[in-house]
User: Which sequence fits this backbone?
């Protein structure tokens, strides 16, 4: 942790490798749809048939699909990216090559990230509430977000909702 602020922490994350999949789904369905191919990948569905340890967190972010025409109905063209952070011992070159073409291995660059923690359900409304609060806290402190927000989930779905650890992550610009 770099420092703690009112309502969030600033953390410095090193470069790391993720396995990710993009799914055409709304916020609340995406976790289940993206989870299956990623679990299969770390379970050995890769060219070297190597099993990998499950690490935390599972990260979810939203992207918008490029479709024509540009005008879209609410929810149409919505895509979510679900990512597993791979063990720190792996690099982009040493990570097993996925057998499933939906799974992509990507290196995430180092970042300075504002993080707010919360417990509870993985609902879009709860997530959006915490994103808004984090954005407000950053604005109050004069920090500029330079990424889209991400949801980090640390617990399995069978853990009671009130005990789950969730975080919202926003990369911020380094101050001069």
Assistant:
């Amino acid at each position: 942790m770099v420092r703690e602020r009112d309502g969030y922490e600033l953390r410095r994350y090193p470069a790391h490798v993720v396995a990710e999949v993009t799914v055409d789904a709304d916020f609340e369905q995406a976790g289940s749809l993206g989870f299956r191919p990623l679990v299969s990948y770390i379970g050995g569905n890769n060219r070297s048939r190597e099993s990998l340890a499950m690490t935390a967190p599972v990260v979810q972010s939203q992207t918008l699909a490029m479709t024509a025409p540009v005008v879209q109905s609410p929810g149409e063209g919505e895509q979510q990216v679900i990512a597993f952070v791979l063990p720190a011992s792996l690099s982009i070159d040493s990570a097993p090559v996925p057998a499933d073409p939906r799974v992509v291995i990507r290196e995430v660059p180092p970042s300075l990230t504002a993080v707010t923690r919360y417990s509870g359900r993985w609902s879009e409304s709860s997530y959006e509430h915490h994103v808004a609060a984090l954005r407000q806290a950053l604005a109050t402190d004069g920090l500029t977000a330079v990424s889209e927000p991400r949801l980090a989930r640390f617990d399995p779905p069978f853990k009671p909702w009130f005990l789950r650890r969730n975080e919202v992550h926003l990369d911020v610009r380094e101050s001069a």
